[in-house]
Amino acid sequence: MKATSATPSTSAPVAHNALPPPSATSNARSSRIAPHSHIKGLGLTSDGLAAPDGSGFIGQTNAREACGVVVDLIKSRKFSGRALLLVGAPGTGKTALALAVSHELGNKVPFCPMVGSEVYSTEVKKTEVLAESFRRAIGLRIKETKEVYEGEVTELTPAESENPLSGYGKTVSHVIVGLKTVKGTKQLRLDPTIYEAILKEKIVVGDVIYVEANTGAVKRVGRSDAYASSYDLESETYVPLPKGDVHKRKELVQDVTLGDLDAANARPQGGQDIMSVMGSLVKSGRTEVTDKLRREVNKVVKGYVDQGVAEVVPGVVFIDEVHMLDIECFTYLNALLESPMAPTVILATNRGNALVRGTTDIVSPHGVPVDLLDRCLIVKTDGYNREQIGKVVQLRANVEGLKLGPGVLERIAEEGERGSMRYDSISINGEPLVTAFADMLSNFLRQPQSSLVFPEEVR
Ligand SMILES: Nc1ncnc2c1ncn2[C@@H]1O[C@H](COP(=O)(O)OP(=O)(O)OP(=O)(O)O)[C@@H](O)[C@H]1O
Ligand SMILES: [Mg+2]
């Protein structure tokens, strides 16, 4: 078995098997009850008309139908170079509509939400933040049949030898790994760099792993279910003993985004030299992803697509509060929209005529310069009446598992009609009727904008 190092470098072909950084769109997150968890889609019939309420959406039929048209355009790949701009008063469901559009496009489609003000950071250039979001919204599904050694680890013995260079201490010269499947067992003698990878993945005896034969990349699949414990709650995933031989060909499907590939190739990896040790100690998080690196990644990706190994899955970038962007960001957005690898862009704002940020005299509709507005399809959201607000509150209550007492719904709907669906909680706080809703209200009415935005740490 050839045991090369799995360390990617910018000049070598991009190791798409390099572990992507923890993805922002993990399944664990979406299962949480969030302000929009009742939204399952646009709720349109097959001929594109909106039912009064469907897929968690109440009313707002015009906007939903318009978004349905956009979804069709996107699916037939006729929406490139354009953006969807959602405008309307606060709390009228713009963010919800954007989410519904992403649901309609399919669940494996990357959805990358951000808020306009996120671009203002002292560490990273504004345009860089935008570019990164765009890259994160382009998925790549890589299908490969690879030669792997797979099985449950039965033995893990590093063999040490004297270090010929320093005379002090010992180094690992190779590692013996025993793998077991239903059909048989095999003992492998592996290179020390693979041992490092094994340590990094925290692999111990009893885990099911596979080692890729020609790159030496090690992946932990889970713990063998022979070791399953009787705890009710556990973070471990148990997998059955693999079938077939230890050495076999296996079809691997990986979903990564271009952003993941950029990040994986920009970060120093491997731990060969002192600098990369420093790099992992000083948790810098972001290393500069240069344009050159992006072009490099694009080239490799294009190669994979041409060979039929990978498939590009264009996703959705959602920029909420788009009026917070400034004129520089807007011009850059224009450029990004026209690039060949552009995802679908959805913008949202609740401003009417407003000054374009970063200028002193340009006032334009929605605070968006007219040249970008020209590229947008604008969809307006309408306000709700009391009955509709009542329905939304009822929906939310169901999602939160709350039972509303008599009269409560009417009372909240009345407040919702007077204020917005979000900010009227204060005036009813303290009422004995609604104390039971404290949780629901804080979730539903005081929905912080950040709930849709992935904070820096989870990136
Ligand atoms: N038509 C609707 N059907 C069901 N739920 C809705 C509808 N419209 C809004 N909601 C819910 O109401 C809450 C507020 O809506 P949302 O956050 O989408 O408003 P917004 O237009 O983005 O407001 P802002 O301008 O303040 O960002 C959310 O929980 C959303 O899911
Ligand atoms: Mg919003």
From TrEMBL:
<dbReference type="InterPro" id="IPR027417">
    <property type="entry name" value="P-loop_NTPase"/>
</dbReference>
<comment type="function">
    <text>DNA helicase which participates in several chromatin remodeling complexes, including the SWR1 and the INO80 complexes. The SWR1 complex mediates the ATP-dependent exchange of histone H2A for the H2A variant HZT1 leading to transcriptional regulation of selected genes by chromatin remodeling. The INO80 complex remodels chromatin by shifting nucleosomes and is involved in DNA repair. Also involved in pre-rRNA processing.</text>
</comment>
<keyword id="KW-0234">DNA repair</keyword>
<dbReference type="GO" id="GO:0005524">
    <property type="term" value="F:ATP binding"/>
</dbReference>
<dbReference type="Pfam" id="PF06068">
    <property type="entry name" value="TIP49"/>
</dbReference>
<keyword id="KW-0547">Nucleotide-binding</keyword>
<keyword id="KW-0347">Helicase</keyword>
<dbReference type="InterPro" id="IPR010339">
    <property type="entry name" value="TIP49_P-loop"/>
</dbReference>
<dbReference type="InterPro" id="IPR042487">
    <property type="entry name" value="RuvBL1/2_DNA/RNA_bd_dom"/>
</dbReference>
<dbReference type="GO" id="GO:0003678">
    <property type="term" value="F:DNA helicase activity"/>
</dbReference>
<keyword id="KW-0010">Activator</keyword>
<keyword id="KW-0067">ATP-binding</keyword>
<keyword id="KW-0156">Chromatin regulator</keyword>
<dbReference type="GO" id="GO:0006281">
    <property type="term" value="P:DNA repair"/>
</dbReference>
<keyword id="KW-0804">Transcription</keyword>
<dbReference type="GO" id="GO:0016787">
    <property type="term" value="F:hydrolase activity"/>
</dbReference>
<keyword id="KW-0805">Transcription regulation</keyword>
<feature type="compositionally biased region" description="Polar residues">
    <location>
        <begin position="1"/>
        <end position="12"/>
    </location>
</feature>
<protein>
    <recommendedName>
        <fullName>RuvB-like helicase</fullName>
        <ecNumber>3.6.4.12</ecNumber>
    </recommendedName>
</protein>
<dbReference type="InterPro" id="IPR003593">
    <property type="entry name" value="AAA+_ATPase"/>
</dbReference>
<comment type="function">
    <text>DNA helicase participates in several chromatin remodeling complexes, including the SWR1 and the INO80 complexes.</text>
</comment>
<feature type="domain" description="AAA+ ATPase">
    <location>
        <begin position="80"/>
        <end position="370"/>
    </location>
</feature>
<comment type="similarity">
    <text>Belongs to the RuvB family.</text>
</comment>
<dbReference type="GO" id="GO:0006325">
    <property type="term" value="P:chromatin organization"/>
</dbReference>
<keyword id="KW-0227">DNA damage</keyword>
<feature type="region of interest" description="Disordered">
    <location>
        <begin position="1"/>
        <end position="32"/>
    </location>
</feature>
<keyword id="KW-0539">Nucleus</keyword>
<keyword id="KW-0378">Hydrolase</keyword>
<dbReference type="GO" id="GO:0005634">
    <property type="term" value="C:nucleus"/>
</dbReference>
<dbReference type="InterPro" id="IPR027238">
    <property type="entry name" value="RuvB-like"/>
</dbReference>
